[in-house]
Amino acid sequence: MGEPEAAAEDLEALIDELDYLPGHFHLEMQLNFEPRSPASLHARDLKLQQDGLRQELELAAAPQRPAVRHLLGALAFHLEELDEARERFLEVAHEDPGNLNAWANLAHVSGRLGRDEEEEACAGRLAALMGLAAESGAAGDPQLRAARCLAEQGYAHGLDVGCTSLEERARVLAAGIALYDKALGYGQQIPMEEKRGWYFTMATLFIRLDGIFLELGSEEQKRLPAFNRTLALLRQVLKSPDPHYQALAWCYLGILLERKDTFSTTPMGVHDCGYSGTDPLDCFGKAIEIAKDQPLILNRLAKIFHFLGKQDMAIGTCNMALDILRDPELNWQAYCTRAKIHLRAYLHDLERAKMGLGGMPDRNHLACAKADLEEVVKVCPSLKTYLDIGQVYYYMGVDAVQELLAVDEAALNQALVFLAKASESELGATLPELQLLRGKCLRIKGEDANAAACFKRAVELDDAGSCHTEGFGCLLQALLAQWSQAQLSDAELGREVDKWLRRAQDFTTERPAPLHCFSHLQWQMENRLGSAVLRDLTLQLPV
């Protein structure tokens, strides 16, 4: 056996003996597996996650920024943006030359770029930092480097892309928690405030995992140990001097205390942590009080309250943020969240009216949402804002009973204008929600053939395993309208219905949208386009 082969075998044996392996590209995340969706749709989901993480990077605490940058680099790599991926990993390596994941990820990207010498140098640096080289001489505690490496990998699991089932998402979240546990084992000497940041992220992952267990109807004995541990983690986070951690920890504690009623008896962790008489509303109130002078934290709380269905609390929190910082260019999040709250209030009343459970919805909600979004569109237009304001104009243009009649042609035209602007972007052209909304506008205007084309595109763009059937239902209505106007023959209608019915059966699942969602379209848009770290609370909370 030659020397190179022997050296390779020695290295493989050494790697097999390691308790952990730096880098993100070997992790058992859906991000690293062969995508199940078409390439264009997979790229769309990666880019949406990337956009959200760029916003998150601006808000992240200093110790957490390397973890965000690593994930941004991994997303760029999978999007074939190799130079950007390399830059992200270099940023981490320059700020922290002892960061193990930075050198492992750089070696991987350099190899892909054909930079053989750089790849070798990065691998050598990594070996030295891990104490694997003959002459390591690396300063610092290798235990701390290992701990931070594992924590960064755990963070990445919380924001995986490509999970198509709740069970799959639960597995990835559990793996992320396990990595944090291992990190804590290595990180006995990690500064306490940095460790509290880990506790906070772990609590976030646990809450999301518990939400999945609730949705799956899991036995409470399966939920109980993690529930009790989450309470203990949040109690530690509350000792942090950082108002961001304090406020969100109180908010999450309120969420947990509301969930305690889903158990047959109060979880013992509630008593062990001293929360026996604590009211969830008091927790939410403390969160708001801590954040009262911090618009960025108030905005985060407002989004959480909005997703929890606590709309009065959400709008009050938005108003507090806007009282402090009214400039829409600097505080666009508050305007956008307040607009979403008004739109959801309108949609809630609209659904009740359709079922005969209430009177006509208050269209003043639409006027308020329009005013807020127009402030944002003027100074920082974006795909998401164009979609939101397009949706508002759509509801302004249709009747408030069955959404079948045009009551304001100008509003419908304005909705189509904003949707056209949204579709100009590469991402916009791949969003089924945009095509669905566009088709609904065209249907109301009597353009059934154009509407059908949009609905077909919406069905084509929807995710495998989707629980959203609105696009297919709208398509059937549009095809029937064309048939009734003799634009389709009996045979053509039969072929079209058969073709799209087969496609819908292949791609949809019986799992319904969450019960608190008053509009499937609104839920789809918020779930897909919300911040990468803040979506429907049954699945995801900000980390």
TrEMBL record:
Domain of life according to the entry: Eukaryota
Which SUPFAM superfamilies does the UniProt entry name for this protein?
A: TPR-like (SSF48452)
Q: Tell me the SMART domains matching this sequence.
A: TPR
What PANTHER family does the annotation carry? TETRATRICOPEPTIDE REPEAT PROTEIN 22
**Name of this protein:** Tetratricopeptide repeat domain 22
Source species of the chain: Canis lupus familiaris (Dog)
Q: What is the lineage of its organism?
A: Eukaryota, Metazoa, Chordata, Craniata, Vertebrata
- Identify the coding gene: TTC22
